[in-house]
Design goal:
27% of the residues lie in helices and 15% in strands. By secondary structure, it is an alpha+beta fold. The protein folds into four domains: 69 residues, Irregular (Cytochrome C Oxidase, Chain J), CATH 4.10.91.20; 255 residues, Catalase HpII,  Chain A, domain 1 (Beta Barrel); 87 residues, Hemocyanin, N-terminal domain (Up-down Bundle), CATH 1.20.1370.20; 151 residues, Class I glutamine amidotransferase (GATase) domain (Rossmann fold, 3-Layer(aba) Sandwich). The strands form four sheets. Strands 4, 5, 6, 7, 8, 9, 10, 11, 12 and 13 form a ten-stranded antiparallel beta sheet that branches. Strands 1, 14, 15, 18, 19, 20 and 21 form a seven-stranded mixed beta sheet that branches. A two-stranded antiparallel sheet has the order 2-3. Helix 3 runs antiparallel to helix 4, helix 14 packs antiparallel against helix 15 and helix 16 crosses helix 20. The protein is globular, with a radius of gyration of 28 Å. The N and C termini lie far apart (61 Å). The structure holds CIS-heme D hydroxychlorin gamma-spirolactone 17R, 18S (HDE). CIS-heme D hydroxychlorin gamma-spirolactone 17R, 18S (HDE) binds next to strand 5, strand 6, strand 7 and helix 10.
């Protein structure tokens, strides 16, 4: 294994404050101290903990070709004379360039941009009563896991904070083979039948002639398709909500989306929906902030995950299951096979059965995160599929995609994809085969006996499909039970707090304002009338559009589905500042007592911080203490933080009051409804930003050390939402 050094990004208040106070500059990400011995290693491709080639610490590795030939000169290609032509004979040069030319593999057609980490799943409540799956039998047992989070529409190099659904794909390396729960952070999907997936994806990706917009649904093609597909409107409510701009991968829920089956030892089936509930609570950013984060730090989400894990703040989710039987499925207002519907937690409560902890970043992004191959059809005995036509189509699709993307049927030989349980089969050869059978027998049945004859089926331990009865004519059809497209969309909308409803309206107005064709805007609003008249009126008004007639509905919507609190983010916040980041804008001459008190309060809460200063070299406090900075002001805008504090001297404030980046820092924090700690001296910067008369109860005075804990406690609410209506003229909700 490579010798990995810890590279914390944010400093934990406890860990690094002392170094800051002592005047040491904080560790830079990726920096290698010049006197540190450089170790170099590369592991084998078996992923079985086998041979690793490592150069002893202190020794200098000899550069070789891929075939092991030592290299004498890696600076100059082989030439005929000093200024002559390069010679074909230069095998080292040719190998190096050819290998480089082949470095890229096709990016995923969807979910191209993603970030993964290792961890484990631990069973906390046995599910042996409903499933024979080995992973669900023994409470306390841990199963290795790898999780990859992603956006859907953007290409591999796109920014993290696109408005988009997030992939939440979990690979569990169980003792009975890999189990992939390839889900999203939204519990429903745009379409009901897999045959429409290529159309959906084409519509949201950059338009084919102009190749833009990148990682954005705000364009004609997407809304044209959506407005012609009423079944997508429940999902649209979710993607226009703040669920589509999460603060962190750590603050998102995950969902298996489809209905699956659990099968017990006797072959009895129970329907199941899977949920991942973040221990960190739910949290999102606001749209204006997302737009700015994408410029300030396009890697915001991946950096956040990397930093959290490396600082020992391991993200954790609970695995919840909703279990139900045929009777519930038959009595439910909607079809449990329809992936555009969810089952409210109030109807089928969630049973928590385990926890997922991410505690290790990858050694190599390409080898692990890029090459990991998730497939919905990877399920262990005891888990099975329902007839959801979206799931059925996915089971067909994912193997094909992995073969295309990874280039060989042997992609399971890549360590990240290899099961961690015994394997034996007669599949062989092909490109890059790494695990090759030994012996004479490669077929079955054979009569070579138990030792030489190879593996045999096991009717007891083996995977058996649930024996579901099915008949009826072969037909291309959509069940009548899938026909209600608006009722749950409305239930989602009415379950939101007023500020969340406002954000949905704002998002629709923003997206549709980017649509050039007025008829597409109008057709979209015609669907909203079937969801909520107030929302439709708000959006029509925001677009300057006459209210269109309601779209004809295939089935009359159920208007009075009850409010469901788990659907709101604001109602499910953390109630804590733990794991959140405070940005402290400082200048020379700042008050050391308040600074120390802030760090102490933050440490008690479990929060982290970055110091932002006029110069990256840091600041000198009024008592001469030096404090290192993480960001220069224009590189550390307030959008990167959950709350901010302004700790400056009078002189520092006077200088910063003239600085555009410092003014942006405070005015953005204010506009994004953040909690702001303000020393008396800092008020000059707010005055310069035109905010002197606007400061409200979430702008908390830091006049003495004792104020620090009051401020950090206030930050637990994360945002001061009442401010938004004062600072945003956009879509005010209509009655
Ligand atoms: Fe996927 N999807 N998908 N999808 N999907 C892929 O597989 C596909 C769908 C999801 O981090 C692809 O390896 C079809 C729903 C995630 O590597 C591809 C249909 C849900 C990821 C594919 C769907 C998802 C993918 C692209 C319609 C949420 C990323 C590259 C029937 C429940 C996994 C790849 C990762 C990736 C096909 C619909 C989630 C092409 C045909 C619904 C999280 O195979």
């Amino acid at each position: 294994m490579a010798n990995k050094s810890k590279t914390p990004g944010a400093k934990t208040a406890a860990g690094i404050a002392a170094a800051d106070i002592a005047g040491e500059s904080p560790q830079k990400i990726g920096a290698i101290p010049s006197d540190a011995p450089i170790t170099f290693s590369f592991s084998d491709t078996q992923g079985d903990g086998g041979e690793t080639h490592q150069v002893a610490e202190g020794d200098v590795a000899v550069l070789t070709t891929q075939h092991g030939t030592p290299v004498a000169d890696d600076q100059n290609s082989l030439k005929q004379g000093q200024r002559g032509p390069t010679l074909l004979e230069d095998f080292h040069f040719r190998e190096k360039i050819f290998h480089f030319d082949h470095e890229r593999i096709p990016e995923r057609v969807v979910h191209a941009r993603g970030y993964g980490a290792h961890g484990f799943f631990e069973l906390t409540d046995s599910l042996a009563d409903v499933s024979r799956a080995d992973i669900f039998q023994r409470v306390g047992e841990r199963t290795p896991a790898f999780v990859r989070f992603s956006t859907v529409a953007g290409s591999k190099g796109s920014f993290d904070l696109a408005r988009d659904v997030r992939g939440f794909a979990v690979k569990l390396y169980t003792q009975e083979g890999n189990w992939d729960i390839v889900g999203n952070n939204i519990p429903v999907f745009f379409i009901q039948d897999a045959i429409k997936f290529p159309d959906l994806v084409h519509s949201v990706k950059p338009e084919p002639d102009r190749a833009f917009p990148q990682a954005a649904s705000a364009h004609d093609n997407f809304w044209d398709f959506i407005s012609l597909m009423p079944e997508s409107f429940h999902m649209i409510m979710w993607t226009m909500s703040d669920r589509a701009i999460p603060r962190s991968f750590r603050t998102m829920e995950g969902f298996g989306v489809h209905t699956f089956r659990l099968i017990d030892a006797k072959g009895k089936s129970t329907f199941v929906k899977f949920h991942w509930k973040p221990k960190q609570g739910l949290q999102s950013v606001v749209w204006n902030e997302a737009v700015k984060i994408n410029g300030a730090d396009p890697d915001f989400h991946r950096r956040d995950l990397w930093d959290a894990i490396n600082s020992g703040d391991f993200p954790e989710w609970e695995l919840g299951v909703q279990l139900f039987d045929d009777d519930f499925a038959d009595s439910f207002d909607f079809d449990v096979l329809d992936a555009t519907k969810l089952i409210p937690e109030e109807l089928v409560p969630i049973r928590i059965v385990g926890r997922l902890v991410l505690d290790r970043v990858v050694d190599n992004f390409f080898a692990e995160t890029e090459q990991v191959a998730f497939m919905t059809q990877n399920v262990p005995p005891g888990v099975d599929f329902s007839n959801d036509p979206l799931l059925q189509g996915r089971n067909f699709s994912y193997l094909d995609t992995q073969i295309k993307r990874l280039g060989s049927t042997n992609f399971t030989h890549i360590p990240i994809n290899a099961p961690k349980c015994p394997m034996a089969h007669f599949q062989q050869d092909g490109h890059m085969a790494m695990r090759n059978p030994v012996g004479r027998v490669n077929y079955e049945p054979n009569s070579w006996g138990p030792t030489q004859g190879g593996p045999r089926e096991d009717p007891v331990r083996g995977f058996r499909s649930f024996e579901e009865e099915a008949d009826g004519p072969k037909q291309r059809t959509r069940s009548e039970s899938f026909a209600d497209h608006y009722s749950q969309a409305r239930q989602f909308f009415v379950s939101q707090t007023p500020i969340e409803q406002k954000h949905i309206g704002d998002a629709l107005v923003f997206e549709l304002s980017k649509v050039e064709r007025p008829d597409i805007r109008s057709r979209t609003v015609s669907h909203l009338r079937n969801i909520d008249e107030g929302l439709a009126a708000t959006v029509a008004d925001g677009l300057g559009l006459p209210l269109p007639d309601a779209a004809p509905a295939a089935r009359k919507p159920i208007a009075d589905l009850p409010v469901s609190d788990p659907l709101s983010i604001v109602k499910n916040g953390p109630g804590s500042f733990k794991g959140r980041k405070l940005g402290i804008l400082m200048s020379d001459g700042a008050d050391p007592a308040i600074f120390k008190a802030l760090l102490k309060a933050l440490d008690t809460e479990g929060g982290v911080y970055d110091v932002v200063a006029p110069k990256i070299g840091g600041v000198t406090l009024s008592d001469g203490t030096k404090v290192g900075a993480k960001h220069k002001i224009d590189g550390g805008p307030s959008v990167l933080f959950d709350a901010v504090a302004i700790l400056v001297s009078e002189e520092g404030a006077a200088t910063l009051a003239a600085d555009a980046a410092a003014k942006d820092f405070v005015s953005d924090a204010f506009a994004h409804c953040k909690f702001i700690g303000i020393t008396a001296e800092a008020e000059a910067i707010f005055a310069a930003a035109g905010l002197a008369d606007d400061l409200d109860e979430a702008c908390i005075a830091l006049t003495k050390a004792g104020d620090a804990s009051t401020f950090i406690e206030a930050c637990r609410a994360l945002r001061h939402w009442p401010r938004e209506l004062k600072v945003d003229l956009d879509a005010k909700p209509k009655a």
